[in-house]
Amino acid sequence: MADDTPINETPAETSAYDSALPESEQALEEAGIAPELNPDELPPVQPPSAGFIVQLFLVPGLIVLVILGVYTLFWKLSSSEQDWRSLVTDLRSKNEHIRWQAALGLAQVLKADQERGEKGQNLASNSQVASELSGLLSVMLADTAPSEDDLKQQEFLARTLSLLDAPQTVLPVLRKAMETQRDREVRKYAITSIATIADRVNQKGKQLEDDGLVTELIEVSKDEDPFVRQLGAYALGLFKEKAAQERLEVLLASGDNNTRINAALGLSRQKSTAGFQVFLDVLNDAAKMSSSENAMSELTFEKAISLKNVLKAVTDLEAEFNVEQKSKLAEPLKTISEEHPDAKSKIDAGVALKALS
């Protein structure tokens, strides 16, 4: 913030000309009579000093900049306030293009506000914003024959709702968006948004409460689409309900590798070591890849993410594993910490190994 402390003016200095006047001439001047001076007796003209130039030009310039800065700040704040309100109004427009542009703009405003942190307007908790965006998605989901563009907009809105901290407002429409008959991508973003919101609530030391949500996520984890099952397992791991934990234990035996990993990671968040064997399998695979000549080409993004998450889970559970489990985990961890092609994975494996020792 610009310093708005008033800038003190410099007292006027005594003129060099005044001090050079003879006493008699000073008396004449005091009497209002101009003395007659010989041009040769005039004091020499001195060039302006640097300090004088600074006072004449730089200081006023700084004052102008401060004023402009304060004006710009208040203009931006008022403009931002006006922007989101006008965008919310546009969401109610009967013109489809205006509604869509408003949704895009509001998503950008939400992200920008989120990045500002405490300096922002906390739009994520704004009930009006949450209500309007949720309402728009609800209207679009009611369309029984959506076009490809309609589906893209549904995906976008489902993803945007993850930015909001208004569970009671956004969860009902997100639950509707993850129903079996919905488009796969819409379902994917709806489930991901629910998980994101639940995770933020957990980070605050609270638990997301919504009657029937866990039951619906359990059904999602049974979906015939492997990717949807994986997301269901991930989301269930963010809930402490007994039913969620029991379902995750069942998913540890899933035929899909990523579903097993997500189930094990979900259980680890509740300090459960039930996913030990899944963790060991991931570490053994990573250790084998470390000794492969084509290790770097075999390191897919999916494998890298799985290994990263498993290494963190193993480190977090170090106090929960028994002696035998720690011994089995230590062997692949040592290999990964020494030979894995990814430097970050080597470091994380070393941290996990030290935690288990």
Molecular structure report:
This protein has 357 residues and is an all-alpha fold. It has a domain at 273-357. Helices cover 68% and strands 0% of the residues. The chain has 17 helices and no strands. Helix 6 (148-160) runs parallel beside helix 8 (184-203). The longest helix has 41 residues, at 50-90. The protein is globular and about 65 Å long. Residues 1-35 and 66-82 have low confidence and may be disordered.
Concise synopsis of the structure shown:
This protein has helices at 16-20, 23-31, 50-90, 96-116, 127-141, 148-160, 167-177, 184-203, 213-220, 226-236, 242-251, 257-269, 276-290, 295-298, 301-316, 323-339, 343-356.
Keywords:
globular; disordered N terminus; single chain; 357 residues
Silhouette: globular
Mean pLDDT score, rounded? 82
Low-confidence blocks of residues: 1-35, 66-82
Largest sheet: none
Calculate Rg over CA atoms: 35 Å
Beta fraction: under 5%
